[in-house]
Design a protein that fits this description.
This protein is an alpha+beta fold. It folds into 3 domains: 92 residues, Pseudouridine synthase (2-Layer Sandwich), CATH 3.30.2350.10; 133 residues, 2-Layer Sandwich (Pseudouridine synthase); 57 residues, PUA domain (Archaeosine Trna-guanine Transglycosylase, Chain: A, domain 4, Roll). 21% of the residues lie in helices and 33% in strands. It is built from 8 helices and 18 strands. The strands form 4 sheets. Strands 1, 2, 3, 4, 7, 10, 11, 12, 13 and 14 form a 10-stranded mixed beta sheet that branches. Strands 15-16-17-18 form a 4-stranded mixed beta sheet, covered by helices on one side. Helix 1 packs parallel to helix 6. The longest helix is centred in the N-terminal third of the chain and has 12 residues. The two termini are 28 Å apart. 32% of the residues are buried.
Length: 305
């Protein structure tokens, strides 16, 4: 039997709020950051198109086990929308398909149509998306000139606030549920206004609990890499910050032991429903649990032995 190969890289645990630059894919950004950290394990929590910049949380080490929770969380965007033109991709990178006049459309008209896009709405996923049809990514089919039938999906627009309006462009601040396609939102608003529209600029400003928080530029990561591992690790947030909007439950030695063994436990004064963060008496974060119907807390994803 051959020797087991040792993992390449160093053990890094934590979350980096990367400000992804324009012009590169989320995976390219991830691979570059992982290389700079020389990390054994890393993953991102939801792709941004090359056209988009902004918050791309990168999870290192045990934080990757919580990445699904960030993928499922709400997102915040600042989007710039160009009226009068529809494109093949719904953004400025696509071929212009149609140009229509925008005469008479200004702030008042835009404000008048926004209420119909707040709350729970139905969206048709765009062909230029990463969804799969019979095992093939939709964007690959779209590039081959193939369009397939898609099912509308329900998404939630929690808030939609109009910013600056300048000529044929305007800005929106969007707080939405996972699975929202901002390009589709822009196109749908343009159709209701009767002139068509596409996204001319998109920046993600928040993911889950990381809303309005400072981000780290790629240049800062590169500089920290020159200064050494201590400087790099100082850029990371603790793993449990990914769930900072969940209630915390602190366990005594007995309940901690049984939870780690996979058994539900009774914790006095614990929340009566929902997901919780789990901590030992020493305040060490050890995983996440969920409150069962009988009030006991069951382990769902344990990070520490």
């Amino acid at each position: 039997m051959g020797r087991r190969r040792r993992p390449r890289g160093r053990v890094v645990n934590g979350i980096l709020l990367l400000d992804k630059p324009l012009g590169i894919t989320s995976n390219d950004a991830l691979q570059k950051v992982k290389h700079l950290y020389f990390a054994q394990k890393a993953g991102h929590t939801g792709s941004l198109d090359p056209l988009a910049d902004g918050m791309l949380p990168i999870c290192f080490g045990i934080a990757t086990r919580l990445s699904a929770f960030l993928l499922d969380s709400d997102k915040h965007y600042s989007v710039r929308i160009r009226l009068g033109q529809t494109t093949a991709t719904g953004d400025a990178e696509g071929e212009v398909l149609e140009t229509r006049p925008t005469t008479g459309i200004g702030r008042e008209q835009i404000l008048a149509v926004l209420p119909r896009f707040r709350g729970v709405i139905s969206q048709l996923p765009p062909m230029y998306s990463a969804l799969k049809h019979k095992g093939e990514r939709l964007y690959k089919l779209a590039r081959a000139g193939i369009e397939v039938e898609r099912e509308p999906r329900e998404i939630s627009i929690h808030s939609l606030e109009l910013g600056e309006v300048s000529g044929e462009e305007f800005e929106l601040q969007v707080h939405c549920s996972k699975g929202t396609y901002v390009r589709t939102l822009a196109e749908d608003i343009g159709e209701v206004l009767g002139c068509g529209a596409h996204v001319s600029g998109l920046r993600r400003t928040g993911v889950g609990p990381y809303t309005g928080m400072p981000m780290v530029s790629m240049q800062q990561v590169e500089q920290a890499a020159l200064d050494g591992n201590e400087a790099l690790d100082a850029l990371l947030l603790p793993v449990d910050t990914a769930l900072s909007d969940w209630p915390a439950v602190r366990l005594n030695a007995d309940t901690s032991y049984y939870l780690k063994m996979g058994q539900p436990v009774v914790v006095p004064k614990a929340p009566t429903q929902g997901w919780v963060r789990l901590y030992e008496e020493s305040d060490r974060f050890i995983g996440v649990g969920v409150v069962q119907d009988d009030g006991r807390i069951a382990p769902k994803r344990m990070l520490a032995g």
